[in-house]
Predict the structure of Tryptophan--tRNA ligase.
Amino acid sequence: RPRVLSGIQPTADSFHVGNYLGALRQWVDLQATHEAFYSIVDLHAITVEHDPELLRRRTRIAAAQLLALGIDPERSTLFVQSQVPAHTQLSWVLECLTGFGEASRMTQFKDKSVKGGADRSSVGLFTYPILQAADILAYRADLVPVGEDQRQHLELSRTLAGRFNGRFGPTLTVPSPHILKETAKVYDLTDPSAKMSKSSPGGALDLLADVKGSVKKIRSAVTDTGRDVVFDPENKPGVSNLLSLLSVFSGTPVPALQASFEGRGYGDLKKELGEAFAAFVTPLQASVKEYLDDPAELDALLTVGAGRAREVADATVSDVYEKVGLLLR
Ligand code: TYM
């Protein structure tokens, strides 16, 4: 079976619907057809200032959400990045194959470092995409399900895999991004020109947020001029975003939804989305809570995952170290 790997940062108290539509839904689906490795990337989360206790808590919250969303630890390897040393071991080799200018062109670094400026950002934030490449290449993943914002990082992973193979002989798999067009970029509810992100909580719909509050957020989402509910991302970005969300949470294709809203207005769209979202997250939240009520069990499950991940990733590192001329361990 082909392999899939993806990762998510434990940097918030909840995942938002951008994470879910852009990536996590595909994580769940791909379990049926692929050998899946899914990682909570805590090492990526310390590239910016953070609170240690909060990180630990959020790592468990992340695991609980993934399980509640349908990641099946029997079928998939679910693990915490820092518990598999192969990621950083491979990352160093890849750093030595990456040009300084090449790393400088990664736009996420520019975006994230913009406030303090590059001078005040950590070197870890700078090399972040190379660690991400190591995450992927360590598992020789064929496919990487992510949202549109990760496309550039995926491109770097492909470049580095190709470069390594070119220099040292066929060793690493060149991974393909798996980015679903319709949900690759979910937009901010208060600003449909920006992507939904945890750094703009006002416009993000969190899976674990109080449901009433979320319904209210949906009700006050920014829409567009006119009154017809039509899917037209160019001219009606706000309405189109809400339609995409409703499509996922109701299980109804966008064209059928659009037909059902003929003669009705934005208010009805928001009402239906609120109901569908509430119906989705209410049982999800209960399930997350159950997982979090037993942190020892959760940790044990992650330990098993890390063990399985280590077997695969260690083999790649041994191969890579041998190819570059390091003495075998
Ligand atoms: P992260 O933790 O920011 O986001 C997790 C996933 O959610 C997707 N996403 C979105 N998709 C659509 N619309 C949005 N508004 C939206 N916001 C977030 C992201 O594209 C991502 O797929 N660098 C990665 C984590 C990572 C990783 C990896 C991913 C580390 N190593 C290896 C894949 C493979 C990140 O920060 O994602």
